[in-house]
Design goal:
This protein has five helices and four strands; from the N terminus they run H-E-H-E-H-H-E-H-E. It is an alpha/beta fold. The protein is globular.
Amino acid sequence: TNYPTLQYKKDLKNFASSIRPLNGNGAIDSAAGKIVFISLGGSTSGHMMRVLKEKTIYDTTTNPFLKLLNCSDGYGVASFQSIANPADSYWDHVFNVIVSSHMFPAQVQVIYIETEDSSQVVSFPDRPNLVKDDIEAAMRTCKSKFPNLKLVYFLGRTTTFPDSTNQ
């Protein structure tokens, strides 16, 4: 089935309740703190974050402490390898978005990622193993940049490259 089990729903609800508004230093601040939720990845994740912002901005059930930030980049520099590299120029873009929104990295607790791997290895099982390693490295970098990160949503990205078999 395509429905979560009752235990999964219960666990997720309990876990999500641990996400609290934080101030710029990462301390709980129930008066003026924010729950920062960012998107990472290429242009498709940016489109999804824009839609999510449109759907939640006037919704009275949206948590008033929630701040959605579109840190996606549509210029082809947001692969898992870019995200995994703490010195990659992609991170300049991410931090510019956060700072220009008057938020702080210590407030980021939720990330939505939709991107691709830039591996040229297409054999099995080499490529899936490389992708797994790239995702793990990207998550370690995210955790080092966002020390209060608690929840990451992944969505597999569809290809935007032409199919050479149809040419």
